[in-house]
Specification:
Blueprint (H helix, E strand, L loop, with lengths): L1 E5 L5 E8 L7 E5 L7 E2 L1 E2 L5 E8 L3 E8 L3 E3 L6 E4 L5 E6 L1
Antiparallel strand pairs: 1-2, 2-6, 3-4, 3-7, 5-6, 7-8, 7-10, 9-10
């Protein structure tokens, strides 16, 4: 699940990412906005992993989830999808 929050006084958007894998004990968010550096997502009591990040308004961000360091997944609620250089797809977020 993706939720976007725009600020009236700032030129950025806060994006809340929530992901519930079928299996997995660790989920990281990776995106091109931070050079694909992993951001550890926190697991809540319901078993969903969550994190928040801020991006400039009117930006286009590619991202993916990495589960247990071995399996990639996309977010079904992404604004779009793009083929990546490895033959897979990246989720796309448009602010």
């Amino acid at each position: 699940m993706i939720k976007k929050r725009f600020f009236k006084t700032k030129s950025e958007c806060e994006v809340s990412f929530e992901y519930a894998p079928d299996e997995g004990s660790k989920v990281e968010l990776l995106c091109d906005a931070n050079d694909w550096q992993p951001v550890q997502m926190k697991k809540n009591k319901g078993g969903h992993f969550k994190t928040k990040m801020r991006f400039p308004k009117e930006s286009v961000i590619q991202f993916r989830y990495l589960i247990d360091g071995t399996r990639w997944d996309n977010d079904d609620e992404a604004d779009a999808f793009r083929i990546n250089e490895f033959g897979g797809r990246n989720s796309v977020l448009e602010n």
